[in-house]
Amino acid sequence: MKLIINPVKSLVGTLRPPSDKSLTHRAYMFASFATTESIVRNPLRGEDCENTLRAMIHLGLRHEMLGPEEFRLIPTQEWMQPNAPIDCGNSGTTMRLLAGLVASRPLNVTFVGDASLSKRPMGRVATPLRLMGAEIEGDRAPLTIHGKELQGIDYVSPVASAQVKSCTLLAGLRAKGTTSVSEPSLSRDHTERMLKAMGFRLDSEGLKVSVEGGQEGHGFEFNVPGDISSAAFFIVATAILQNSRLEVDELSVNPTRTGILDVLTQCQIPFFVTDVREELGEPVASLVVHTANLLQPFTIEGELVPRLIDEIPVLAVLATQCEGTSIIRNANELRVKESDRIELVANGLRQMGAQVETFEDGMAITGPAKLSATKIDAHGDHRIAMAFAIAGLIAEGTTEITGADSIATSFPGFESELARLCVA
Question: Does domain 21-222 correspond to CATH entry 3.65.10.10?
Answer without folding.
Answer: yes
